[in-house]
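Following the same procedure, backbone shapes were mapped to integers, yielding the entry below.
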Amino acid sequence: MLSEIATVTHSTGGENVAERAREKNYDLVIVSLSMRETDGLWICSKLRSFEETRHVPILVVVDDCERGSKQLVRALEMGVNDYLIPPVERLELTARARTQVRRKRYSDRLWENFHLSMQLATTDAVTGLYNRHYMNSHLETLLRHARQASKPLSLAMLDIDHFKPVNDTYGHAAGDEILHEFAKRIARNVRGVDLAARYGGEEFVVVMPDTVEADAKMIAERLRQTISNTPFTLADGTNINITVSLGLACITDDVITTADLLERADSALYQAKHDGRNRVVIAKAA
């Protein structure tokens, strides 16, 4: 009946039918509650328990009898979206199926728009890393947790050396290419728990939770080497050698706010620039 409006996959049941349904991005699942070999209600329950099928609409076919009425009540309590009573007519089935598919696709669009809005609000458009606003708010949480648990927290501030001449010589489009590749190298060389963000312009920040100074220095040195050891290649094939200076700061008793930590890392970064660039400088205790 639905072959004219949809691609239909048919299953006779079985214990793994719900697992098979989660493997594909279905727009609608129709479950017969009168199957003898398989419990249709159990299938509905499994579909609602899986993350992949939790929001997929379910249409059940239920017999018009006392047992069917009880099954239908339980099915609706599980989150089943609609039902049909045999004999099933083509027009009614098509109308109900279309309604559920439209609702799902509308809901999917809402979620996509929501996630896109969240992504735009928290990430930098050029590099794909987190932006400064997200980093600041997240850093406050990390600093508070580190204080409460008496755990270390380190922060590296990075600045691309001589970036203005790159823009002046090759153009801002080339500069964006450099920033994008720079961000990719940073993201590949930090841990999953670390937070990498674009701070502004050619400045970046990497926040390293539960990381003492010695380990943070190793990470910072690895970041410096991954930038300087391999030239950056532009779309037209031009190779450009890029280096980065890093200022590293760790929380101490006199680091009270995120501004204190950022200011200390910034001072160390300034010292790295002053000392000749392409190096890591650790902030001194106040």
The chain has a mean pLDDT of 92. The longest strand covers residues 153-160.
